[in-house]
């Protein structure tokens, strides 16, 4: 909730609103979905002859699953860091007042991802 006091001039002072950072763009994906996605990727790549397996199919599928899982976890870590940065600068964001908090979150997330070499 936003609490504010106004002076006789109608200017807001002492805004103690907590900046909303309770949003996420990462896909909270269940292990079953990752398993299914791994199967689909492997089948699609093999059927289009984009890959030639040099290891057993189960090993390749496990590697794909691990890679997808790590990717989602890394994106979640980037989002968490973006939330912390946004919260730490909440006063400045409120003062500017022009930018949507979600857009600010996405911008910070994009910059962090770029800095880490992570493709969103």
Rg is 22 Å
Kindly report the spatial arrangement of strands forming the biggest sheet: 1-2
Counted beta strands? 2
Please give the share of residues in helix: 55-70%
How much of the polypeptide forms β-strand, as a percent range? under 5%
Note the gap between the termini: 32 Å
Low-pLDDT ranges:
1-19
Helix and strand content put the structural class at: mainly alpha
Instruction: Tell me the major beta sheet.
Output: 2 strands, antiparallel
> Which term fits the overall shape?
elongated
Order of helices and strands: EEHHHH
Number of helices: 4
Integer tally of domains: 1
Average the pLDDT over all residues and give the rounded result.
80
Topology:
Blueprint (H helix, E strand, L loop, with lengths): L4 E2 L5 E2 L17 H17 L9 H32 L1 H7 L4 H16 L4
Antiparallel strand pairs: 1-2
Helix pairs in contact: 1-2, 2-4
What does this structure look like?
The chain is mainly alpha-helical. It has one domain (28-116). It has four helices and two strands, in the order ββαααα. The chain has helices at 31-47, 57-88, 90-96, 101-116, and strands at residues 5-6, 12-13. A two-stranded antiparallel sheet has the order 1-2. A hairpin with a 5-residue loop joins strand 1 and strand 2 (12-13). Helix 1 crosses helix 2 (57-88) and helix 2 packs across helix 4 (101-116). The longest helix is centred in the middle third of the chain and has 32 residues, at 57-88. The relative contact order is 0.13. The model is unreliable at 1-19 (pLDDT under 50).
């Amino acid at each position: 909730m936003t609490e504010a006091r106004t002076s006789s001039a109608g200017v807001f002072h002492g805004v103690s609103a907590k900046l909303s950072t309770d949003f996420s763009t990462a896909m909270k994906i269940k292990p079953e979905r990752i398993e299914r996605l791994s199967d689909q990727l492997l089948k699609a790549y093999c059927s289009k002859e984009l890959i030639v397996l040099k290891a057993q199919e189960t090993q390749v599928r496990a590697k794909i699953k691990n890679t997808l899982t790590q990717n989602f976890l890394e994106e979640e870590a980037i989002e968490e860091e973006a939330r912390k940065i946004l919260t730490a600068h909440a006063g400045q964001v409120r003062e500017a007042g022009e930018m949507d908090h979600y857009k600010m979150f996405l911008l910070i997330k994009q910059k962090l991802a770029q800095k880490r070499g992570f493709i969103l």
